[in-house]
Amino acid sequence: LGHAVTRPAAVKPERRIIEAPAKVFDSQQGLNEAFKAGTLTGDFIAVIRFQGPKANGMPELHKLTTVLGVLQDRGQHVALVTDGRMSGASGKVPAAIHVTPEAVEDGPIARIHEGDIIRLDAEAGTLEVLVPAGDFALRRAADADLIGNEFGFGRELFAGFRQMVGRADHGASAFGNNVAELALQ
C-alpha cells in the first residue's frame, strides 16, 4: 500500500500482526459515528483516508485511539491504516500512519474497498491488501467529499500550501521536495 510509519514497541507482541477486513472511512468522525451506532463489530482494520497533507493538512487523529482501544479491550482484533498522522498516540493499537502516496494523490489507499482483507505486520514492516494485483490495479480511486471542509478548518487559509506540499514520507514540506534529505546533507 506504499510507505507508512508504525511503532510496534508499544503494541503487545500478540497484536502486532493483524489480518482482517477493512472498514473504510474518510474521516475520524465517520469512525466515531460508526462506533456510537454500534456497527464496529468483529475484527477489522480501520482505514481512514483523505487525511494527508494535500487533502486535509494532516490533522491530529487522536480521537481514534480511544474508540479502537475500547474495541480491543472487548476482545476484537483491530488496527488502523491512515494517510493522516497521530503523533505517536496510537498506543496499544497497531497502526500504520502517514501512508504515502496519500489517497488524494491516487495512492493505493484510495482503492481499498469495504471488506477487503488487509494484513498489517508490524514486525516484518509490511502492509498489504490481499486482493489480486490485477484486480486492485483496475479499481477506480475513491473521491473524498472535501468540499464541505473548505471553510472553518483552515482549508481556505492553507489552500496554497496544500497544493505545494510534498509527501509525508518526504517531510510534508511546502519548502522543498525532500526536507529529510536536506537535513542529512
Can you characterise this structure?
The chain folds into two domains: 136 residues, Glucose Oxidase, domain 1 (3-Layer(bba) Sandwich), CATH 3.50.30; 38 residues, no CATH class. Helix content is 23%, strand content 20%. It contains five helices and seven strands. The two termini are 29 Å apart.
Instruction: Name the overall outline.
Output: globular
Total count of domains = 2
Report mean pLDDT, rounded to a whole number: 81
Oligomeric description of these chains: single chain
Based on DSSP secondary structure assignment, what is the total number of beta strands?
A: 7
* Widest sheet, order of strands: 1-5-4-3-2-6-7
CATH fold call of the largest domain = Glucose Oxidase, domain 1
Distance between the termini: 29 Å
Largest sheet: 7 strands, mixed
Number of helices: 5
What key attributes describe this structure?
alpha/beta, 2 domains, 5 helices, disordered C terminus, seven-stranded mixed sheet, Glucose Oxidase, domain 1, 185 residues, 7 strands
